[in-house]
Design brief:
Oligomer: heterotrimer
CATH topology of chain B: SH3 type barrels
Number of domains of chain B: 1
CATH architecture of chain B: Roll
CATH topology of the largest domain in chain C: Phosphoribosyl-aminoimidazole Synthetase, Chain A, domain 2
Number of helices of chain C: 9
Number of helices of chain B: 1
Strand order of the largest sheet of chain C: 9-11-8-12-10-13-14
Strand content of chain B: 25-35%
Largest interface: A-C, 54 and 42 residues
Chains: A alpha/beta (372), B alpha+beta (96), C alpha+beta (349)
Largest sheet of chain C: 7 strands, mixed
Structural class of chain C: alpha+beta
Helix content of chain B: 25-40%
Helix content of chain C: 25-40%
Distance between the termini of chain C: 47 Å
CATH architecture of the largest domain in chain C: Alpha-Beta Complex
Distance between the termini of chain B: 64 Å
CATH class of the largest domain in chain C: Alpha Beta
Order of helices and strands of chain C: HHEEEEHEHEEEHHEHEHEHEEE
Strand content of chain C: 15-25%
């Protein structure tokens, strides 16, 4: 029944070992605030109940690494506008299907007749285009640097095969500018970072050195199994105790320090950085998102389709930005759990199950139940 | 962006594009290895799979090293607890 | 000692349109039924909102159940729509403590459907009914225009007498009661997901569709007095069924994750797709709440049923955490196990 390279990193006795070591590494008088950048880590933390294993004074702050959460509503509307063109199939990941645009979610629009299909891989979207030469298949691309190389290779393949009825609506974003925005925001009180292990499998560890060198905060690039997350927290705490600030790689079985050269080549071939891009909850950030190069205009949905491009702002009462930066916790937003909940999300962080608010709502609001 | 799972290469499927068949707990899928360097993979190797692509080959040695270090940490902890236990026993002996 | 019970809140249905999520068996489905349909038909039997409706006819307690089947694809490893239609209704009656005495079947057929397809389903239904020991005594057939339904839709209705020894009621559940599960979860839902072919995943998996009456029968033989509640965890999975129970009885439920039986392939598929097995549909399993003193015997009884070897005790009822279901991870952590919102969707993040 066991899954290799998964269950060894869920070994209860090793987890207990690291948990004990964490207790030994902390100053009981100090309150530690460590941000896990990546939404996948947020999910793992709640899924495995890791907060119960950590000491009370080690607080995990949820970062902005949730590509669905930071996607502005206007961009969702743009994607759905493409879907409502005649003879167009919009292909999305499952994550996108319940993200609300102004007029409804992709699932709702599909139920009303739009041709929107769920795919597991951008290659499946390309295959759909090959098999249906009379329709146009547009792939709604989301994700950080983990996912962008896969989109890049898919576009390169589309060009290679001369598939003209395929395009990509690129909403890929990059993690470093978001981290910088958080580090620069006033009121930020973070001691260290759990770095995004799968993003790092592509970009390596060096891009995070600025966090240590310029801001003096430790970064530990972490895997996603419970043992990985806990060991990474331990490594951050040890650096803090030794008053060090460097980048360390906990996820050595996956992440090469210099990153994935082939993936970076694919990215460079197909994509360029947008001058700026809006992040829901964080505002406009420069050089933070990917656009297909002009050589690939034929496969760029934004070049082939006229999209509304309307900016839709969140209600002012939604405090997504403060929560993203770790200044507020989800229950401190006035809308949390009331107007804004997983079934009717108002703000970015309730939309995806790994958004800070959704994670808190689903898993942690039962804290009273657990500790009763 | 982060859901990626280890799978074992059980067959080479195609040259162009480079496809292998991967097994995750008995579930199988074709996976594109275009993001790995040429010639990097052998049958039986483990890769990290994300949206139908292999992002990385899993380093067996690194995994073993990490687990070995953590087990050693656990043994150190046990050893320390034993020592504490001995000192209690020594105290008892002296008091008696 | 008085226990505080959470009174379920009245739900209101304010959606403008019916969406797919209203049929998925989770929160949205509950809102539709409890907020729109049930209030219109208001009556005491309906108010219990169990899988089967139980009422008295001339002194005999009778259970009835109706279910619609719209699954795609029609055939899949381990079964087909016809088998689901028979077993589904037999099981709804079974978990209400009634052995199905008769079934009726209503077919809605799409014009243009190959006769062989219908023949195969009818034969599958006959075989399933024979295995379950229940006759299909009547029904109805309608044909709609091409494009108006997906080949075949089947509705089945079943009736049976409730075993006199039983009082199945969420209100009889007590702190300290145990949660019993008949076998591995997720087989059916993952089989269907893979059979649709969109995800290009392959695995040796079959739907677990079968009559669960043999499990109920042995509980009746072993510990009828200590049997509080049963459910077949179909759409929405074990998580939804137990959340509904927790809500109805106003108590808390704690599941031990390492005790939940799960096939390797189901686990693999869920890891690849980012799904939670507790939310995946089952078509051949029983969840039962039994008194602590009867739990071990009930477990052994389940295991003595052919196909019950993997039955497990998976959790406990407790007073704390009223209305919630919580999971204990193998490393001392806890997590919330929530009701399903809409269909389980694969994710990449």
């Amino acid at each position: 029944m066991s899954l290799k390279y998964v269950d060894e990193f869920r070994d209860p006795s090793l987890i207990a070992t690291v948990a004990n070591e964490i207790k030994r590494s902390i100053d009981p008088e100090r309150h530690y605030r460590i941000m896990e950048v990546c939404g996948g880590h947020t999910h793992a933390i709640y899924r495995h109940g890791l907060r119960d294993i950590l000491p009370e004074n080690v607080e995990l702050v949820h970062g902005p690494g949730c590509p669905v959460c930071v996607l502005p509503t206007g961009r969702v509307d743009d994607g759905l506008a493409i879907a409502s063109q005649p003879n167009v199939v919009l292909a999305c990941f499952g994550d996108m299907m319940r993200v609300p645009g102004t007029k409804g979610t992709p699932l709702e629009l599909r139920a009303r007749g739009a041709d929107i299909r769920m795919v597991y891989s951008p290659l499946d979207a390309l295959k759909l285009a090959q098999e249906n030469p009379d329709t146009h298949v547009c792939f709604f691309a989301i994700g950080f640097e983990t996912t962008a190389p896969s989109t890049a290779l898919t576009v390169l393949r589309a060009r290679e095969l001369g598939i003209g009825n395929f395009s990509v609506f690129s909403n890929h974003v990059t993690i470093v500018p978001a981290m910088r925005a958080i580090l620069d925001s006033p009121g930020m009180r973070l001691d260290g970072f759990i770095g995004p292990g799968h993003v790092s499998s592509i970009i390596g560890c060096r891009p995070f050195e600025f966090v240590a060198q310029r801001y003096g905060k430790p970064v530990v690039v972490a895997g996603f199994e419970p043992l990985d997350v806990l060991e990474s927290i331990l490594m951050v705490l040890r650096q803090l105790r030794a008053r060090e600030a460097t980048v360390e790689n906990q996820y050595r079985r996956i992440v090469p320090w210099q990153g994935n050269a082939a993936a970076l080549r694919a990215l460079a071939a197909a994509f360029e950085l947008r001058p700026y891009f809006e992040w829901r909850g964080l505002g406009f950030i420069s050089q933070s998102a990917l656009k297909l190069k002009s050589a690939f205009a034929e496969w760029d949905a934004e070049a082939r389709f006229a999209v509304p491009g309307v900016r839709v702002t969140d209600p002012r009462a939604a405090q997504c930005g403060e929560i993203l930066k770790g200044v507020l916790k989800p229950p401190q937003c006035k809308l949390f759990g009331k107007e804004c909940n997983p079934e009717h999300p108002v703000g970015a962080l309730m939309v995806s199950s790994e958004g800070a608010c959704a994670a808190h709502y689903r898993y942690a609001r039962l804290d009273e139940a657990v500790h009763a | 962006m982060c859901l990626a799972i280890p799978g074992q290469v059980v067959a080479f499927v195609a040259e162009q594009p480079a496809l292998v068949r991967v097994d995750v707990g008995g579930v199988r899928r074709n996976v594109n290895i275009g993001l790995l360097e040429e010639g990097e993979l052998a049958l039986g190797d483990w890769v990290l799979i994300h949206v139908g692509f292999a992002l990385s080959k899993i380093g067996e040695a690194e995994a073993r090293d990490q687990l070995r270090m953590l087990r050693a940490m656990g043994e150190d902890e046990l050893a320390m607890e034993e020592v504490r236990g001995y000192s209690f026993a020594a105290d008892d002996g002296e008091r008696r | 000692m008085l226990e505080a019970r959470v009174t379920p809140r009245r739900l209101r249905f304010t959606d403008e349109r019916i969406e797919m999520s209203h049929g998925a068996g989770g929160k949205a489905s509950r809102r539709l039924v409890e907020g729109l349909i049930a209030p219109a038909f208001a009556n005491p039997v309906l108010a219990t909102l169990s899988d089967a409706a139980t009422f008295l006819i001339n002194g005999t307690r009778v259970a009835t159940s109706a279910d619609g089947y719209v699954v795609k694809p029609l055939r899949f490893p381990g079964g087909s729509i016809g088998e689901l239609a028979v077993n589904g209704t037999v099981n709804d009656l079974a978990v209400s403590g009634a052995r199905a005495s008769a079934l009726m079947a209503s077919f809605i057929l799409e014009a243009g459907l190959p006769a062989d397809v219908l023949r195969a389903e009818v034969e599958a239904m006959a075989a399933a009914a024979q295995r379950a020991g229940v006759p299909i005594v009547g029904g109805d057939t309608k044909v709609v225009e091409h494009g108006m339904c997906d080949g075949i839709y089947i509705s089945t209705f079943g009736i049976g007498a409730v075993d006199e020894r039983l009082v199945l009621d969420p209100q009889t559940v007590r702190p300290g009661d145990k949660v019993l599960l008949s076998g591995p979860i997720g087989d059916h839902g993952i089989t269907i997901l893979l059979a649709r072919g969109e995800l290009e995943l392959e695995a040796e998996l079959r739907s677990d569709t079968r009559s669960v009456w043999p499990f109920v029968e042995c509980l009746l033989a072993t510990c009828p007095a200590g049997l509080r509640w049963m459910r077949d965890p179909t759409r929405g999975g074990v998580a939804t069924a137990l959340n509904e129970l927790a809500r109805e009885c106003g108590l808390g439920i704690v599941l031990r994750e390492e005790d939940i039986p799960l096939r390797r392939e189901v686990r693999g598929a869920c890891e690849v797709l980012g799904l939670d097995p507790l939310h995946i549909a089952n078509e051949g399993q029983v969840l039962a709440i039994v008194a602590a003193g009867d739990a071990q015997r009930a477990l052994e009884a389940f295991r003595s049923v052919p196909g019950g070897a993997e039955a497990r005790l998976i959790g406990d009822v407790r007073a704390e955490g009223a209305g919630t279901v919580i999971g204990l991870t193998p490393y001392g952590g806890t997590r919330a196990i929530d009701m399903l919102v809409g269909d389980p969707l694969p994710r990449i993040c």
